[in-house]
Amino acid sequence: MTPKEEIEQLRKELDQHNYNYYVLNQPTISDYDFDQMMYKLQDLEMFYPQYADPNSPTQRVGSDLNQQFQSVPHKYPMLSLANTYNEQEVRDFYARVKDGLEGEDFEICAEMKYDGLSISLTYVDGILTQAVTRGDGVRGDDVTANVRTIKSIPLRLKEGGDYPHEFEIRGEILLPWKNFERLNEERAKNEEPLFANPRNAASGTLKSQSSKVVAQRGLDAYLYYLLGDAIPADSYHYENMSKAADWGFKISQGMKKCKTVDEVLEFIEYWDVERKNLPVATDGIVLKVNSLRQQRHLGYTAKSPRWAIAYKFKAERACTRLNEVTYQVGRTGAVTPVANMDPVLLAGTMVKRASLHNADVMEELDLHIGDMVYVEKGGEIIPKVVGVDKEQRTGDVHKVEFISRCPECGAELVRYEGEAAHYCPNDSHCPPQIKGRIEHFISRKAMNIESLGPETVDDYYQRGLIHDISDLYSLTVADICGFNRNRVKSAQKVVDSIKNSLNVPFERVVFSIGIRFVGETTAKLIARHFKSMDELRNATVEQLLEVDGVGEVIAESVIRYFHDEQNVAIIDKLADSGVQMRLSDDQLEGATDKLSGKSIVISGVFAHHSRDEYKAMIERNGGKNVGSISKKTTFILAGENMGPSKLEKANSLGIPLVSEDEFLAMLEE
Ligand code: IVH
Predict the structure, then answer these.
(1) CA-118 nearest atom, ligand 1
(2) What is the distance in A from the centroid of ligand 1 to the CA of 293?
(3) Where are the alpha helices (DSSP H) in 412-564?
(4) Helices (H), 256-408
(5) In the structure, what pLDDT confidence band is assigned to residue 184 with cuts at 50, 70 and 90?
(6) What is the mean pLDDT of the chain?
(7) Among 74, 79, 80, 170, which is best to mutate for testing ligand 1, by the most ligand atoms less than 8 A from CB?
(8) C-alpha to C-alpha distance for 376 and 346, rounded to whole angstroms
(9) Which site in 187, 263, 461, 475 is 20 to 30 Å from 300, CA atoms measured?
(10) From residue 614, how far is each of 277, 602, 618, 622 by CA, in Å?
């Protein structure tokens, strides 16, 4: 054997042993023999550097070199799943799918919902080429170097596998319970802060600057979603995943195809108990329509697929004494009651405060001071009070009544029709509302003004330097320093980072100004649709409703926002300061109104562009992409293999089909 052949042989064998150990959990050689082989390969690679390969098993130990993560776009956006919490909601999902598929038979694939960090892996010709975190779903961090150290992720797929030339596979990175406990023990010994749960630990680890640290921590990965242009359009999720398992990936434990909703519920019931024996954290079950063709037929909402849903396991519960109810006023003026309780251990953390949501929830619980209450920690980070043990109630306890005046400014609280929360209406003078809006404006996902935080905002507000978000841009170093010369350096940093925020793109400005109900996703949609603040400001309810994903509540909230003179004055001041008030030229490039007023359904498989690219094209040219065919549909952008029921519906409503080439020609004109 030549050295090159020997190196290749050792790599192949070590890959197989890694797979046996980390994926199958069935090692076939001793650790000692494994180490000997590894040393031999290391020696050979040192001697023959010309045969170095980043995918060699020797490279899984990571390196000490500091790294910076590059932000890269996802080829396909990384969506999340809608949640369900009980049997009825699962049944509702099942019924919706059945309805959407118009009576066609279907199977649901049930699998574990892993509680870690999502990751997207790209393989080209069987080689791992890139690993990207979810990020904001559109762009993520390139963490390839760290992911290479995760032993259950194959760097090279098994030889001879029938995998496509290029594909993406998505899954969850986790720190197994055992390694999590070991890590926290070590940290306790070194008096380092402990990780609250394996997910935080996995997240901290994956973002570590040193891939060597990552290698030592022992992350694991389960893959659950295969995608790419080369995945057969008429294939099935379950079958694709078992192929992925053959190629060397670790897939969900106990995946099952279910033919009825009862089978689905049985699966849930079984794993609700059995999951406690799994080596990694799970927080629910994911249900997916098995046929990819049917998945396409069902499509997506703005945030999540209609063909899949998560069922969340019931949260852990504890019982403790209620001592006091206090009230918090948020940036929107919503008043949230908070239960203050005797500290109690819940799902691994000490809890002494819990949300009571609103007056109705409080009333329903029939809370009395001194009650023993049940506290739960669900998917949310903040625990909540879910019940009272009335048997433990003693005689002389007094009932908790919701307050009638704002605890911060004394204004009388109001309740808007159809809303559960009480509000403090004094939005221009109630301090937490003013500060809350500024805090939202500077936050990371908004204008990302890093050098400011809640304490500095509070300080500037107390000193009368800022009354609203637009005041930030006229702050000077002298204002901030006041009489204190020592502050010059940090003040300059603040002024610089505020100035930097002038580059934040328009879409995020729309999010930052804090229009009620306009979250990140909606802000993006309306920014892209209206293109400038002036257009948005003058939009009517009807025009707002044209934006996919905008309903009446949002539309009216936008109108209300711009109706308020104070808000308009703030926007004008922001514009004068140079804040981005329109989409950039890059974003506008190629934008036309050729498809204006047209409602277009995308269906089938395409040769020239992905569905998401077509969606973007439709939007860039002023059209609206909608999920399902109705009388209002202008035409269907129809690729190959359009679903038979869609085709039938289109025919019966007389909606024209436009082919991929015709569509592209339409835009060329
Ligand atoms: S499928 C388009 N399957 O849960 C559907 N997700 O909110 C893509 N997750 O971000 C997701 N286990 O990080 C899927 N078996 C599983 C999963 C799973 C955990 C995570 C994933 C996603 C989140 C959903």
Answers:
(1) 13
(2) 20
(3) 431-442, 454-462, 477-481, 488-500, 506-512, 520-530, 533-537, 541-545, 552-563
(4) 261-274, 292-298, 359-365
(5) confident
(6) 90
(7) 80
(8) 8
(9) 263
(10) 45, 8, 6, 12
Mutate to test the pocket of ligand 1, among 118, 225, 307, 612 (most ligand atoms within 8 A of CB): 118
- Distance (Å, rounded) from C-alpha 271 to C-alpha 184? 27
CA distance 619 to 605: 19
Q: 0.70 cut: is pTM over it?
A: no
CA dihedral 417, 542, 582, 611 (to 10 degrees): 100
CA atoms of 95 and 99, how far apart (whole Å): 6
Kindly list the protein residues whose Cβ atom lies closer than 6 A to any atom of ligand 1: 79-81, 111-114, 118, 172, 224-225, 252, 286, 305, 308, 310
The pLDDT > 70 percentage for the chain reads 97
Question: What residue has token string 């180490």?
Answer: 35
Nearest CA, atom 21, ligand 1? 118
Q: Let me know: does 407 contact 413? Beta carbons within 8 Å.
A: no
DSSP 517-554: T--HHHHHHHHHHH-BHHHHHT--HHHHHTSTT--HHH
Angstrom distance (rounded) from CA 496 to CA 473: 10
Residue 460 structure tokens? 């500037």
